Amino acid sequence: MRRWTRRAFVGAGVGAAAAASAPFVLTRRAVAGSIVGASMETAHRLRARDFPPPSRRIEVPVAILGGGIAGLGAAWRLDRSGAGDFLLFELEDSAGGNARSGRNGVSAYPWGAHYVPVPNAESRAVLDLFRDLGVITGADGAGRPVYDERFLCFAPQERIFAEGEWEEGIFPRRGASREDLDQLRDFGQAMEEWRRKEVFRIPLDLSERDPEILALDRVSMEEFLRRNGWTSPRLRWYVEYGCRDDYGCVLSTTSAWAGLHYFASRRGPDPADGGTPVLTWPEGNGWIVARIAERLGSRLRCGWLVTRVAPGSDGVRVEVFDAARGDSVEVACRFAILALPRFVAAHVVEPWRASPPDWMPAFTYAPWMVANLTVDRVPAGRGFEPAWDNVIHGSESLGYVVATHQSLSTAPGPSVLTYYRPFTGPDPGEERRRMASRSWADWRDEILADLSRAHPDVASLVRTIDVMRWGHAMIRPAPGFIWGEGRRRAAEPLGALHFAHSDLSGLSLFEEALDRGVSAADSVLRRLR
Amino acid sequence: MTLALYLTVFLIATCGLVYELAAAALASYLLGDTVTQFSTVIGVYLFAMGVGSYLSRFIERDLLGRFVRIELLVGLVGGSSVAALFVVFGRSGSVRAALYPLVGAVGILVGLEIPLLIRILKDRLELRDLVAHVLTFDYVGALAASLLFPLVLVPQLGLTASCFLFGCVNVAVGLWSIWLFRDFIRRPRRLALQGTAALAFLAAGFCLSGRLTTAVEGRIFGAEVIGAVSSPYQRIVVTRRDDDVRLYLNGHLQFSSEDEYRYHEALVHPGLAARPGARRALVLGGGDGLAVREILRHPNIESVTLVDLDPAVTGLFRDNEILSRLNGGSIRHPKVTVVNADAFHWVGEARDLFDFVVADFPDPSSYSVGKLYTTTFYRALARLLAPDGLAAVQATSPLSARQSYWCVVETIRAAGLRAVPYHAYVPSMDEWGFVLASRAPYERPERLPDGLRFLDEAGLRSIFEFPPDMRPLPVEPNRLDSQVLVRYYAGEWR
């Protein structure tokens, strides 16, 4: 013991010397990493239309264009319904869209969407998919679905860093005033009331269409909070966190209807427990992507850019560019499902290329930066134990998610932290330019500075930081958009060409994307028969 | 004379910084959070030095005499400061209340030194040279201390002895000043006598510091520390007082050799003796080999697989003489295979079937250990049970952690297994609870192995009876997504 003690003292002495000099000499080791990401160069060629004419021709009954959750959902539905003769074209070298994921020697990790809340009873497509994938293993006595425990997020789910310490949950109670807590309670009760009335549903097109409630869409969340006297800075931060988290918007740029949908639409199996349980995997929703992609086999074509889509009376002519071979292919199909966002569709759909549709400006998208940090161990920090979702009060980021949280291991070990940062400025184009101008070193410094507020030792734990920039990560549910004319008209099919993407819902949610894909597939199935 | 002056300044500066560093190092050792401890100790110390410097203006007469007395006092207080803090910590388990007053006192005394010295010497040297040289040697002394402290003092002497040594240096400076200025000081002899007494005290402290540290560390654990290892997973401390050997993991008592037989006999035999045909046994956790020792009492057992996360624990209990005597050399026994692996992973991947399983994990005091008490874990464990296999699960105390105990019972039932709760009294721990989990019904064994010290046939009847204060409470089963057990346990076990 004595020898051990002395060694510990030397350690303390040396550690203290290092700590004392830290502000002057950065003793942290070099962090590796790079900016990785979406194939911006290839995609931007769409503007220049710089592609060779088709040199080959493929015929297929159905073509699915875009391999995000909407496209994969359509493919899954067609496959399950015995209409398996289709091809799915995806620009990136792997499918998934916002649900793409990565893997390194430590863990798999998400590059974007990382969980699905336990679905409501009306979310039929999600429930069907989860039964099919074995996420739902059966039903309990009351007929409610039973989930595989490995996929339900383990406790503790969330913690927040406020006033120098971590605490459980996501509302910063530490240092909150009486008034803050009273307003939080009022807000919570109001949301509970909305939830009980089942006004807000998923997919959102099933929601109650009472004009008084739909009118909330034309008001901002900011205005809605003010009307209700919810002025507490803590409560406003908490509500805005939700808007930033799901929509990439701030209070003033989020529709109140969308804001309420965030807080009042999820009627998990046991609302008495507080929050909704969520399903998650180390690679986030990339797990679902991989399960669907496995079934598609060679029908999933990655590295193909859709360059032209011409709907006709008896089918659709599609041109795709094979980035690997550098040539173009003409795909002739009876039906096509365009599972791409509007800002891409406007560049490829024949009638729209000539004259952009008038609804186009209503569709705006928030940019995001997502970083994956490989760490020697999950940083603990003062106070409550590390959770799955770790939020820093007052930060511009959304905090980080721990990829190894669903590990059954009890031993501490290396991990991957996925760090999320939405760019929420009023002008997304300006935000995209801001994001594009930053170097990897800028991101590294910004991320470490942000995290070190809660974890002073974080720089010494980080081995690599990889950064992905999402120029158009999420459709923005700006006031007036969700229940406006544009969204409805943009979703109408053009002959044999059907549309499926979460931007047609106005909310960038897994459930919306899947439902859009499944619904489009159902429409095609009806017409095929 | 000038050289002597500079040497004095150099030495007192060195001493001053050593006390400061020692207090900060001790605080971070005992309290953790190095940055905070060093910052606050240094801050309080520097501030106190400022207070001392201010107070120096109130010393008007007999500057030399006062200076000498301050030297003696700094030596005494600073030199014994770490030992004093150790003693306080050993007695009360907390050190903060004593730390800052002590650091403040030393700081005030040290802060008095330089202003007094400058005033003493102001008539002998030009002010310009005086200030320049005094401050130069002051800072050089600080540098010397900051290098000596981590490189020589702490590794060679330890913290307590280092402080006593520099206390001696401080007092020696005082004595030397008495001799140098013997003509200017009132009653130099009496001062010299006081100085010598202080020197003797500090020298004695220096010589005894090794024994003192052990005694105080012993008091922290209540016994002599005979082995201590820090593994990547935990801090392992083994203590002994007379014949009582105890194992602590992260400060939590795991067993006392005085009564561990009660715990391990109760853990193993009610289950294993009920399956006289059992051949293959599995022990999860329990790297001390004590449960294995009890299992090996059954001659029908052909193999025991011991799965423990920490090779440092199994290694210690295999190689340490005292500890391997305690488990009867069970870890080296030819029937025993040791696997150092994470229990949940191992159970998930194992393909063998076992007739008897022991799940002897630390109490569910954190979310990571709590995973080993969930429905998912017990379902995985059930896969490894032979059709009439039995698992014995340690399940915290049904008396002190009643909800936690019955939560484990409920969780095993929710995982689709039969659960038979029982308990035994283990004085060093508490009234302790166990659960037998199985698919086939359980019946009490007819007979027990020979040589048991706690369980007999009559005892075997009583352990299944729960008095009213330990009876079931309504609880939720422990699931990975709720981990209610960790919340129950945190609420009950303070």
Describe it for me?
Helix content of chain A is 34%, strand content 23%. Chain A is built from 17 helices and 21 strands. In chain A, strands 1-20-16-19-18-17-9-10 form an 8-stranded mixed β-sheet, sandwiched between helices. In chain A, strands 2, 3, 12, 13, 14, 15 and 21 form a 7-stranded mixed β-sheet that branches. The model of chain A is unreliable at 1-27 (pLDDT under 50). Chain B is α/β, with parallel strands linked by helices and 494 residues long. Chain B folds into 2 domains: 2-221, Growth Hormone, Chain: A, CATH 1.20.1250; 255-492, Rossmann fold. Chain B has a 7-stranded mixed β-sheet, with helices on both faces. Chain B has a 4-stranded antiparallel β-sheet with strand order 1-2-3-4, with helices on one face. The longest helix of chain B is centred in the middle third of the chain and has 34 residues, at 188-221. Chain A binds chain B through residues 1-2, 4-10, 12-17, 19-20, 149-150, 152-157, 273, 277, 385, 408-412, 456, and chain B through 21, 24-25, 28-29, 34-35, 38, 146, 149-150, 154-155, 158-159, 210, 213-214, 217, 225, 227-230, 232-233, 237, 309, 342-345, 348, 366-369, 371-372, 374-377, 479-483, 486.
List keywords for this structure.
heterodimer; A: 529 residues; alpha/beta; Polyamine Oxidase, Chain A, domain 2; eight-stranded mixed beta sheet; 21 strands; 23% strand; globular; disordered N terminus; B: 494 residues; Growth Hormone, Chain: A; four-stranded antiparallel beta sheet; elongated
Write the layout of secondary structure elements.
The complex is a heterodimer of chains A (529) and B (494).
Chain A: H1 2-21, E1 35-36, H2 40-48, E2 54-65, H3 69-80, E3 86-90, E4 101-103, E5 108-110, E6 115-117, H4 124-133, E7 136-139, E8 145-147, E9 158-162, E10 165-168, H5 178-197, H6 211-214, H7 221-227, H8 233-247, H9 256-264, E11 278-280, H10 286-296, E12 300-302, E13 304-311, E14 316-322, E15 327-338, H11 342-348, H12 350-354, E16 365-375, E17 389-392, E18 399-402, E19 415-422, H13 428-436, H14 440-452, H15 458-461, E20 462-475, H16 485-490, E21 497-499, H17 510-528
Parallel strand pairs in A: 1-20, 2-3, 2-15, 3-12, 9-17, 15-21
Antiparallel strand pairs in A: 4-5, 6-11, 7-8, 9-10, 13-14, 14-15, 16-19, 16-20, 17-18, 18-19
Helix pairs in contact in A: 3-10, 3-17, 7-9
Chain B: H1 2-31, H2 34-55, H3 63-79, H4 81-92, H5 96-121, H6 127-157, H7 159-180, H8 188-221, E1 224-230, E2 235-241, E3 244-249, E4 252-256, H9 260-272, E5 280-285, H10 290-295, E6 303-307, H11 311-319, H12 321-326, E7 336-339, H13 343-349, E8 354-360, H14 367-370, H15 375-384, E9 385-394, H16 402-414, E10 418-426, E11 430-438, H17 457-462, H18 484-492
Parallel strand pairs in B: 5-6, 5-8, 6-7, 8-9
Antiparallel strand pairs in B: 1-2, 2-3, 3-4, 9-11, 10-11
